[in-house]
Amino acid sequence: MASEPVTDWARDFDLGDPQYEADPYVIWDELRESCPIAHTERRGGAFLPTTYDDVAAIAYDTEHFSSRRTSVLPDPPGATLLVAPPITSDPPFHTKARRVLLGYFSPKNITHLEAHTRQVCTELLDAIEATGEPTADAAGDFAQHIPVRVIAHMLGIPEADEAIFTGWAVAVFQDGVDDPDIVRDAIKEILAYFEVQIRERRIEGKDDLLTGLLEAEMDGDPLTDKHLLGTCFLLLMAGIDTTWSGIGSSLWHLATTPSDRDRLVTEPALMDSAVEEFLRAYSPVTMAREVIADVEVNGCPMHAGDKVLLNFPAGNRDPAKFERPDEILIDREKNRHFAFGIGIHRCLGSNVARMEMRVALETWLERFPSFALIPDAQVRWGGAQVRGPREVPVTLVS
Ligand code: HEM
Q: pLDDT of 62-97, one tens digit each?
């Protein structure tokens, strides 16, 4: 279902428009100057703030904005609203639902995951080398496999089911943009998959996150089945397309900017600031909120029932917040970006994601220090909620 091309970004924007997918930066720059909170009637209607301060103000304001609808797309027809604590929860429930998960993201667990991530990356690089080809797709052959295998390992579900998990992430965040039925069907399948996994663990527990959730309590009671399944859905989906987009954009940047690629090879100590800069400049995630009480943001009236998008990627390019925002400076010192959100829902997996990005880039650069984008290669970027390059075709030795 192709939409009409957009001609008025202030009053009729569309996140699925090819121009927005290919280059949203000029659109945000124009909007910040002319109409910092854009609006559309498309896809169920929504506001689109473009400044850092407006996005942050909305993210912090849980009195007027609810997280019960966080998808930038309209609800699939006939579907009951997905409950995926803590991301779809509001206070005070949110605080308790988030607390249930906090321990799994401790530094100790992340150190353990790092060894596994390095092993996954090494296997993928070995497979690329084993083809004997001088080229590869740094997204499809490498980036897109890493977070799927890492989160499967973390949850305790079979890494051998990787292709199924990837299919669901693609359905929810890519193919479903123009077809809500695809999203609804994928959600059903994911919940059914976890129902089986949980049933198995009720019979015999394992040393994994799913078993931990079964044993967890909130206010002295075990989590309800709906809560449990929704949280499993969230943990599987939150870390896949997001992190592979982060790794993919970083590799695309290095494949198209040999000076930064060479600098990271010779000055590996810059890796942490480079990862932060890639997260800022190519922020993958836009979230949504539902207005629950009439409110005005920066002079723009919003009414209960309206949807507003948390445009973290545009805020991270706001010249009022970042000096030279459209330049990618891998040694940028002051970089308080909000690629992982801001406020009570700030990403729980941020340190897992940072670790995955760092290990992916380190292992790739060790193996292919002089890789480059294939000249004239076409790279498609998408999509509405999670943005990243669909493919990154590279020559492995320049
Ligand atoms: C580069 C990769 C990632 C990016 C850019 C990212 C971005 C975000 C953002 C923007 C939010 C805030 C949502 C909101 O305000 O509504 C969020 C929340 C969340 N993320 Fe991530 N994420 C990434 C990776 C991960 C990973 C790897 C995991 C899990 C292993 C994860 C788990 C979560 C969870 C559980 C929440 C909900 C927190 C809450 O509601 O309190 N994320 N993420």
A: 999 999 999 998 887 766 778 999 999 999 999 999
Atom of ligand 1 nearest to the CA of 151: 30
How many CB atoms are closer than 10 A to CB 103? 12
Q: 3 pLDDT band (50/70/90 cuts)?
A: confident
Q: Which residues line ligand 1 (CB under 6 A)?
A: 59, 67, 70, 86-87, 98, 151, 234-235, 238-239, 242-243, 246, 284-285, 287, 310, 312, 339-341, 345, 347-349, 352-353
> In terms of CATH architecture, what is 18-371+389-395?
Orthogonal Bundle (1.10)
Domain ranges of the chain: 18-371+389-395
Amino acid 179: pLDDT: 87
* Residue 287 to residues 25, 58, 132, 140, Cα–Cα distance (Å): 18, 11, 41, 25
Q: Taking the model in full, what pTM does it have?
A: 0.97
Q: Whose CA is nearest to atom 17 of ligand 1?
A: 347
Predicted confidence (pLDDT) at residue 383 exceeds the cutoff of 90: no
Task: Look at residue 143 and give its three-state secondary structure.
Answer: helix
